């Protein structure tokens, strides 16, 4: 949620900032703004600000009209928390003397207390935001050094923050710091780039410094210096990110979501092949065999799409490893007082690696001496740094808010993790090990049906309600399919375990109701057909996704997927659901990549 960009260098920063904000639009926002340090003819400096409610394109128009420029600048896309979306509440914010400018992600929990104190000292406030206390607090503590003032001011803040600061009193530098909100710094050729996420930097550099909580960076034209809260210098090394710029661009596709759906064979293949060494999966995780044999419970904790991947993992792990698995929504996990001990393994799933609720759950597990394993797509993210073990999926940048390839690479990782543990426990999973390497090719086969799936979407896009049904391994993927449809098409959609129909939900089925049913498990075939018959009798239109030979009386539309073990079927059956949701959204002329009210990375609770 929200996005920060910053630039220190020799070139005019306006286009750099605007391009960076454009690349962070997927994070979700309702307003945008930039601030630049501009030198006057008399060697004094001004902070020039341009911000607006609306999209980055609106900001680009305003910035051109204002004609602002400068070689140091900060920018922001805001998701409203304190104060409605408006020009005034948009970031950047300045102190009441207009000498210090700030952009901020996160929430300052004690801002009202700080604001009252500052007002009593004579400071004025223009916005309703919590952020505006920050530049005024820095100004209040300023004695000639912006870094010192920032260290003092942030010690008074309660909550989460990533902050970039510029001051016309120290016009040749930018100060950045963070706590519980992501911030990275890209190293260019005599220039530096600040951002909330990697895609904003890829056009300029793949060399990235990862800022830790409580660290501060002073950025100048030709140097960067890191400090802790005691102003002791830190020796930090940059990491090289292997994502390509092309991976963060549309490359001829009309939308990022469609591009990312079609990238899934490559992402899954790379995730699997990069982690198969000497016929062993995930050997580089180095999880102790003795610990694997001692595990008495596994928690899989995640939010949204990642949680659905976890549900598929639960069925698989319990079936083969005979270890109890609980899948929890991260926002609920801490509040039900879970039983955790040193024989517990917690697996956290997060595409961004910054999901606030998931991070809090991981920290709880660590405090109870559990082993933690993070599965994430973001190198250097907070969750990946704090977990005992980390596995990076190989999805590359996922820009569309609705997750597709990250979900399937998470599934692939869970499959490999189960196989790795099974071999440690001397459980025979030879067939599954052979099958997993074929999954990318089978995804490609389904993608070849995209035009046919679009024709089904044309019959459905005006509907107000839809339902998804599945049993066994088909139930978690039904949950994910339903989520995809509702989040980008705004069609009310629910998913049910098919056996639960007669316990209430069947009351919602009436003539013409669309129901997407999935059948991939021979063991549950007859029971699933019986459930489908129940809804057909009540007038439902059935879209059937299956790899079984099924009589046409059970469906109105058939989407066939390749045969595979039912344990891996979620990786295939989700593809038609993703495409169906995508085409329905396009037919409704909606913004597929940036659905309303949603953000890619939820970094506040």
Would you mind describing this structure in some detail?
With 605 residues, the chain is an alpha/beta fold. The protein folds into 3 domains: 3-241, Glutamine Phosphoribosylpyrophosphate, subunit 1, domain 1, CATH 3.60.20; 248-437, Glucose-6-phosphate isomerase like protein, domain 1 (Rossmann fold, 3-Layer(aba) Sandwich); 448-589, Glucose-6-phosphate isomerase like protein, domain 1 (Rossmann fold, 3-Layer(aba) Sandwich). The strands form 5 sheets. Strands 3-2-4-1-10-9-11-15 form an 8-stranded antiparallel β-sheet. The longest helix has 20 residues, at 405-424. It starts with a strand and ends in an 18-residue tail after the last helix. The model has no long low-confidence stretch (mean pLDDT 91).
Tell me briefly what this model is.
Helices cover 34% and strands 24% of the residues.
Topology:
Elements: E1 3-8, H1 14-23, E2 31-39, E3 45-53, H2 56-66, E4 72-78, E5 93-94, E6 100-108, H3 111-120, H4 133-140, H5 146-154, E7 159-167, E8 170-179, E9 184-187, E10 192-195, E11 207-210, E12 216-219, E13 224-227, E14 233-234, E15 239-240, H6 256-262, H7 264-273, E16 276-277, E17 280-281, H8 289-294, E18 297-302, H9 304-321, E19 325-329, H10 330-333, E20 344-350, H11 356-367, E21 371-376, H12 382-386, E22 389-392, H13 405-424, H14 430-436, H15 439-447, H16 450-460, E23 465-470, H17 474-489, E24 492-497, E25 514-519, H18 525-537, E26 541-546, E27 557-560, H19 570-587
Parallel strand pairs: 18-19, 18-20, 20-21, 21-22, 23-24, 23-25, 25-26, 26-27
Antiparallel strand pairs: 1-4, 1-10, 2-3, 2-4, 5-6, 6-7, 7-8, 8-12, 9-10, 9-11, 11-15, 12-13, 13-14, 16-17
Helix pairs in contact: 1-2, 3-4, 4-5, 7-13, 7-15, 9-13, 9-17, 15-19, 16-19, 17-19
């Amino acid at each position: 949620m929200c996005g920060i960009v910053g630039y220190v260098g020799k070139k005019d920063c306006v286009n750099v900032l605007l391009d960076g904000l454009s690349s962070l639009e997927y994070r979700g926002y309702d307003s945008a703004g930039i601030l630049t340090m501009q030198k006057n003819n008399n060697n004094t400096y001004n902070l020039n600000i341009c911000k607006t409610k609306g999209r980055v394109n609106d900001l680009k128009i305003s910035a051109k009209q204002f004609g602002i420029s400068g070689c140091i600048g900060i920018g922001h896309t805001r998701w409203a928390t304190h104060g409605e979306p408006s020009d005034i509440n948009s970031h950047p914010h300045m102190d009441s003397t207009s000498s210090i400018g700030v952009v901020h992600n996160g929430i300052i929990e004690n801002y009202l207390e700080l604001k009252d104190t500052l007002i009593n000292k004579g400071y004025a406030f223009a916005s309703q935001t919590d952020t505006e206390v920050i530049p005024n607090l820095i100004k209040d503590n300023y004695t000639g050094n912006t870094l010192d003032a920032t260290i003092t001011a942030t010690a008074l803040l309660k909550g989460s923050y990533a902050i970039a600061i510029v001051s016309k009193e120290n016009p040749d530098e930018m100060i950045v710091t963070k706590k519980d909100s992501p911030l990275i710094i890209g190293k260019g050729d005599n220039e530096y780039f600040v951002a909330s996420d990697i895609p904003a930097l890829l056009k300029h550099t793949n060399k990235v410094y990862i800022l830790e909580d409580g660290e501060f960076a002073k950025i100048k034209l030709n140097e960067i210096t890191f400090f802790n809260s005691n102003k002791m210098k830190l020796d930090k090394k940059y990491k090289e990110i292997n994502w390509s710029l092309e991976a963060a661009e549309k490359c001829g596709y009309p939308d990022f979501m469609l591009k990312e759906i079609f990238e899934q064979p490559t992402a899954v293949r790379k995730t699997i092949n990069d982690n198969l060494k000497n016929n062993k999966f995930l050997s580089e995780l180095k999880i102790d065999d003795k610990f694997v044999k001692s595990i008495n419970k596994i928690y899989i904790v995640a939010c949204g799409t990642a949680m659905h991947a976890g549900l598929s993992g639960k069925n698989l792990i319990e079936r083969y490893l005979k270890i109890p698995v609980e899948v929890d929504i991260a926002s609920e996990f801490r509040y039900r007082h879970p039983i955790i001990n040193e024989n517990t393994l917690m697996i956290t799933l997060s595409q961004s690696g910054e999901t606030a609720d998931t991070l809090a759950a991981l920290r709880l597990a660590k405090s109870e001496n559990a082993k933690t394993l993070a599965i994430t797509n973001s190198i250097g993210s907070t969750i990946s740094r704090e977990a005992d073990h980390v596995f990076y999926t190989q999805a590359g940048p996922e820009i569309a808010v609705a997750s597709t390839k990250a979900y399937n690479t998470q599934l692939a990782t869970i499959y490999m993790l189960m196989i790795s543990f099974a071999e440690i426990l001397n459980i025979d999973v030879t067939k599954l090990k052979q099958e997993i390497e074929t999954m990318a090719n089978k995804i490609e086969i389904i993608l070849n049906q995209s035009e046919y799936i679009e024709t089904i979407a044309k019959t459905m896009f005006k509907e107000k309600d839809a339902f998804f049904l599945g049993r066994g391994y088909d139930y978690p993927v039904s949950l994910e399919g339903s989520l995809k449809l509702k989040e980008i098409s705004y069609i009310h959609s629910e998913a049910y375990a098919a056996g639960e129909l007669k316990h209430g939900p069947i009351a919602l089925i009436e003539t013409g109701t669309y129901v997407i049913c999935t059948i991939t498990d021979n063991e549950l075939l007859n029971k699933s057909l019986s459930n489908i018959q129940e809804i057909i009798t009540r007038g439902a239109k059935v879209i059937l996704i299956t790899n079984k030979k099924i009589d046409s009386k059970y469906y109105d539309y058939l989407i066939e997927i390749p045969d595979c073990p039912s344990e891996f079927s979620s990786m295939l059956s989700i593809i038609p659901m993703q495409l169906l949701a995508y085409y329905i959204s396009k037919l409704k002329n909606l913004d597929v990549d940036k659905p309303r009210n949603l953000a890619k990375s939820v970094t506040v609770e």
